[in-house]
Write a structure and sequence with these properties.
Number of domains: 1
Strand content: 15-25%
Shape: globular
CATH topology: TIM Barrel
Helix content: 40-55%
Radius of gyration: 18 Å
CATH superfamily: Divalent-metal-dependent TIM barrel enzymes
Mean pLDDT: 96
CATH class: Alpha Beta
Largest sheet: 8 strands, parallel, barrel
Number of helices: 11
Strand order of the largest sheet: 1-2-3-4-5-6-7-10
Length: 282
């Protein structure tokens, strides 16, 4: 059986200084250094992040960058099984039209192809904040573009997983419109707690479609806070996820350290998550 530690990863940037005060952004100045820092914490998984700004300069999307990533990942025993596409939330193709939409869909294709080359299995598309689906037309556009790519995604070994602010039943209805082989759900414990959703209802509604989990704590209706200090019942959520048969990874998308000791904070969150996974198995 895989140990809990081997199932825990971290969101890229969490082991670097904050960029322009943002809790999450691609760490241009320190991305290579995060690999040995993760190794020192015993972490073997990283979730890549990519922003719309400079998307085609991100090492993920360039041939030289991909070679660089493969080298530093292998040297430090790290895998990159997933990617959070903040670019899709920042510039959602389902809210654009004409040539602007075509350009953004080209970006989607580039990100998927790049992930395929690097063995990244899951691409998270956030349907929250600026990426939130607000009209039936936007949903139709999103579904049309992605259904057209289902066969290509399968060939490339990449699955799309959605992070959504929809309540349990509507989210289950949404994901049911897409083929199970290539589309699923990214369950974010903190986001659900912030929205006041009941994890029992959520996991009962769509557990088989959960392919990736973000470990986070947030205040009800508020921001990200250190694990154990917000509205999320992480022990319960992880227990229910484990009992549903989930065997995938848990990505620490956690609060940043107020004192700048980001590695120390991540180590604490790692240990808390190990405890919750272990308790769920007993």
């Amino acid at each position: 059986m895989t140990s809990p530690l081997q199932r825990i990863g971290f969101m890229q940037g969490r082991l670097s200084a904050m960029v322009d005060g943002k809790i999450q952004a691609f760490p241009w100045n320190e991305w290579r250094e995060e690999f040995p820092r993760a190794k020192a914490l015993g972490l073997t998984r990283m979730e890549w992040t990519i922003d719309q700004d400079r998307l085609r300069e991100n090492p993920l999307t360039t041939e030289a960058g991909q070679k660089d990533i493969i080298g530093v990942a292998q040297a430090n025993g790290l895998r990159i099984p997933s990617l959070t596409g903040d670019c899709f939330m920042q510039a959602p193709f389902w809210k654009a039209s004409g040539s602007a939409r075509a350009a953004l869909v080209d970006d989607l294709d580039l990100v998927v192809a790049s992930c395929s080359k690097l063995g990244v299995e899951f691409v998270v598309i956030p349907l929250v904040d600026n990426g939130k689906i607000e009209t039936a037309e936007q949903e139709a556009t999103l579904l049309h573009v992605l259904r057209d790519r289902a066969a290509s995604l399968a060939r490339q070994g990449v699955k799309i997983v959605f992070e959504s602010d929809l309540p349990p039943a509507p989210l289950a209805a949404f994901i049911a419109k897409l083929p199970v082989e290539t589309f699923g759900i990214n369950y974010d414990v903190g986001n659900s707690a912030s929205l006041g959703y009941d994890s029992t209802e959520e996991i009962a509604a769509y557990a088989p479609r959960i392919l990736n989990v973000h470990v986070k704590d947030r205040l009800r209706g508020g921001t990200t806070v250190p694990l154990g200090t917000g509205a999320a019942d992480l022990a319960k959520a992880i227990r229910l996820i484990e009992q549903s048969g989930y065997t995938g990874q848990y990505i620490l998308q956690t609060a940043r350290a107020a004192d700048g000791d980001h590695a120390g904070a991540l180590a604490r969150y790692r240990d808390m998550t190990i405890g919750w996974i272990g308790a769920a198995r007993r």
